[in-house]
Amino acid sequence: MLDFRQNNNQNYRKLSFQSNRYFLFSLFFVLFSFLSNAQVSFSVDSTKIKIGEEILYTIKVEADSSDIIRFQEEQTFMPLEMIESYKADTTFEGAKYQLIKKYGLTQFDSGKYTIPPQIIFINEKPFFTDSVKVEVNDVIIDTTKQKMFDIKPAVEVKDPPFDWLQFLYWLIPILLIVGLAIYLFRRKKRNDAEQKQLPPYEEAIVALKQLDNSQLLKENKSKEYYSNLTEIVKRYLDREVDEAALESTSDELITRLMMHRDAGSFDFDLETIRKLDAIFKRADLVKFAKMNQETGQAVVDRKTIEEIINETHEAVPEPTEEELLETQEYLEKLEKKRKRRKLILGISGVLVAIILAGVVYGSITGFDNLKDKVFGNELRELSENRWIKSEYGFPAVIVETPEVLVRVEAQDANAENSMISGKDYFIYGEMKSPLHIMVSTTRFSQKQDIALENALEAVLQDLEQRGAKNLIVKRDDFETDKGIKGVRAYGEFNVQVSDSKVLKEKSTYELLLFAQQNGLQEVLLVYQDDGKYAEEIKERIIASIELEISEKDGQ
Predict the structure, then answer these.
(1) Dihedral sign computed on CA atoms, order 12, 14, 17, 19
(2) Using CA atoms, how far apart are residues 234 and 250, in angstroms rounded to an integer?
(3) Which SS3 state, helix, strand or coil, does residue 24 take?
(4) What is the reported pTM?
(5) Residues 336 and 261: beta-carbon distance below 8 Å
(6) What stretch of H or E contains 357?
(7) Which helix (H) or strand (E) holds 83?
(8) Nearest CA to 117 among 36, 41, 10, 35?
């Protein structure tokens, strides 16, 4: 049966002092209560419950609409435990309104208890309810009418079947992402290939050879042939002589070439420009007047175009050293930019691949498992690694732990007691760590009967001195697999890490005490409950506990 620590004599005296204090405060502020127009009342739905049942504690406040009302949200119902603070309900009647605040209370040990007065602040003036007595009864089980059953053996749970629906749910978007990545990669590769353009002269010569290899003349496609021929020479002139050549008509281009010649920009021969003009006019007749040009003339025009390109190439002035340097710097910057773009794309591809691999791995093995693999989980590593079974102290405690416990110097004031002949401490981790294990053994100089309940109180007080704040204690009897009996305390507390700092996250603890061979053995586990691995570690450690028993103790 669970036994909260608040029921011991020491805490009972604290509770009595707290009740007296509330009573004095009630007398002191009663004048303010009568002067206020507010009315405070309370009620409980039952004064008799069974262990673990809920008592609904209701506070009603009737006040003016301008009043500011504040209810307590702390744990002020001890020795009962507040399991839930319900949201306040508000109703209005004219200039007044009524607030109804409800609390769910319970107790896990039978007995008679007193709910202390509760304080309500109205315009920062305190109002108190009366105390109320409640009775918590045991659950009566009639074994003559209720058949008892043996504990069922452990059943092996098979792994769940593979969820194909969830697999397809992740596979489809993954395939879409992969397809998009392949498309973008190929598109980039094609654009890069287009950017690798030949110099103007080489490009024009290669284009002319490709035109020679075509079957346009043999198929009497004069229009297509002359279109390609004039485009080759215009593209060359556009890149080498005049940037507006491609957008210009034939007459406009001839005029611009004459202007370049007259300005001395290029040393064009007048006869070359006339030949080009004649070819453009024939091409216009073929393209727009649908005139069929003889094959011989087309071949001559092709040769003439090549000669024009060669003459123009020779006429183009050589670039100066400054121009070459500027071009080189530009090309280097362009190359650096291209390399940087490739690096970014490469890193992005690797990140996308890692994310996709993580999504696939998580969808198959579980995302909690993925999180543990990526960010690490100390409790999981301790649970899955190889454990060590060893003896600690005398009288010896044999226990299996994830890591070997380290002996530390005893710093307990009780160790200086003349009745204590020796004390040993073995620990792993700290109280604020994800897992803390402590095994201690105490030897007495004289034969004596050890009251485990009294020893448990002393150990809990020592735990508070070591930094356990807001300690919640539940206790019951404990017996090892080999029949060794002891006491067990368990619950939660906040760890104090400095004089002014207490961790908000609660730590869970298990404390076991045994009295063997005129000695006291203590096993303490403190852990941050993650809902899985911490519980597995705790259960495995507790199940492995063994104590060395002398023949006299074993009788």
Answers:
(1) negative
(2) 9
(3) helix
(4) 0.41
(5) no
(6) helix 321-365
(7) strand 81-85
(8) 41
Q: How many CA atoms lie within 13 A of 374 on its CB side?
A: 13
Contact yes or no for 553/546 (Cβ under 8 A): no
Task: Give the DSSP H/E element, type plus range, for residue 231.
Answer: helix 222-240
| Alpha helix positions (H), 29-163 | 30-35
Residues 6+ apart with CB under 8 A from 446: 419
β-pairing verdict for 119-122 and 388-392: unpaired
Q: What are phi and psi of 16, to 5 degrees?
A: -65, -45
Q: Which helix (H) or strand (E) holds 332?
A: helix 321-365
| C-alpha span between 330 and 449 (Å, rounded) | 94
Q: Which positions ≥6 away from 386 have C-beta within 8 Å?
A: none
Q: What is the pLDDT along the chain (555 residues), one digit of tens a residue?
A: 334 334 444 443 443 444 444 444 444 444 343 444 558 889 999 888 888 888 999 998 888 877 888 887 777 888 888 888 888 888 877 667 888 889 999 988 888 999 999 888 888 888 888 889 999 988 776 666 666 667 777 777 777 777 777 777 777 778 888 888 888 888 777 766 655 667 888 888 888 888 888 888 888 888 888 888 888 888 888 888 888 888 888 888 888 888 887 777 777 778 888 888 888 888 888 887 777 767 788 888 888 888 888 888 877 766 666 655 666 676 677 778 878 887 887 787 778 777 777 777 666 766 677 677 677 778 888 888 888 888 888 878 889 998 888 888 765 544 455 677 788 889 998 888 889 999 988 888 777 777 788 888 888 888 888 888 888 888 888 887 777 888 989 999 998 888 888 888 888 999 998 887 778 889 999 988 877 788 888 888 888 888 876 544 444
**Residue 387 to residues 384, 399, 548: CA-CA distances in angstroms?**
8, 10, 20
Distance from CA of residue 11 to its chain's centroid?
42
**For residue 326, what is the DSSP state?**
H
Q: Rounded to an integer, what distance in angstroms lies between the CA atom of residue 450 and that of residue 518?
A: 8
Instruction: Tell me which residue has tokens 């530009």.
Output: 330
CA distances to 251, 300, 467, 486, 548 from 497, rounded to whole Å, are: 91, 97, 7, 31, 36
Q: Which of 66, 104, 69 is nearest to 84 (CA)?
A: 104
Inter-residue contact 104 to 54 (CB < 8 Å)? yes
Strand 435-444 and strand 468-479: pairing? unpaired
Contact predicate 301/282, CB 8 Å? yes
- Cis omega (within 30 of 0) for bond into 317: no
